[in-house]
Amino acid sequence: MEHEAKVTSTVVFVRDLERSADFYTSVFGCRKTLDADGGALLLAPGGFQIYLVAKGEETPHPLEGIGAQYLMWAVDTPEGLRQFETSLKSVSGDSDTHSSGGVTFVEGRDPDGIRVVIAHPSPLQQPRSSLDNRIYS
């Protein structure tokens, strides 16, 4: 292709804006760069943007419906993966670690139950040769 587009942002609907912003800043080192009425823009290290939009405490999250299901992150070192595993456990009280296709994944949930996944090695370090079975559930 003559031109390429790069994924730079995601929009995440949340129940409580401040609670979710605190989660992403404390676990992933995001920085809040914009605060608006009912929304916020977080900048992750490396420049990826997360738009948080408050939808209220009673709003359901349709797991297994059409659309994006969860956020995936990657780290360059096993030590980095252990750091995020510890951070997820301390903030959410839960995480799960498993390996598939030579990649180790740490999974947890944000305050609204949305899955967050951190992988090592990153896709730049090791292109994926198989799909992890957990992406289907």
Quick gist of this model?
With 137 residues, this protein is of the alpha/beta class. The chain is 20% helix and 33% strand. The protein folds into two domains: 1-57, Signal recognition particle alu RNA binding heterodimer, srp9/1 (2-Layer Sandwich); 69-137, 2,3-Dihydroxybiphenyl 1,2-Dioxygenase, domain 1, CATH 3.10.180.10.
Question: How would you describe this protein?
Answer:
The chain is an alpha/beta fold and 137 residues long. The chain has two helices and eight strands; from the N terminus they run E-H-E-E-E-E-H-E-E-E.
Overall tally of domains: 2
Strand proportion: 25-35%
Assign the CATH topology of the largest domain: 2,3-Dihydroxybiphenyl 1,2-Dioxygenase, domain 1
Q: Oligomeric form of this entry?
A: single chain
Return the average pLDDT rounded to an integer. Answer: 90
InterPro entries: Glyas_Bleomycin-R_OHBP_Dase, Glyas_Fos-R_dOase_dom, VOC_core
Protein name: VOC domain-containing protein
Domain VOC: 6-121
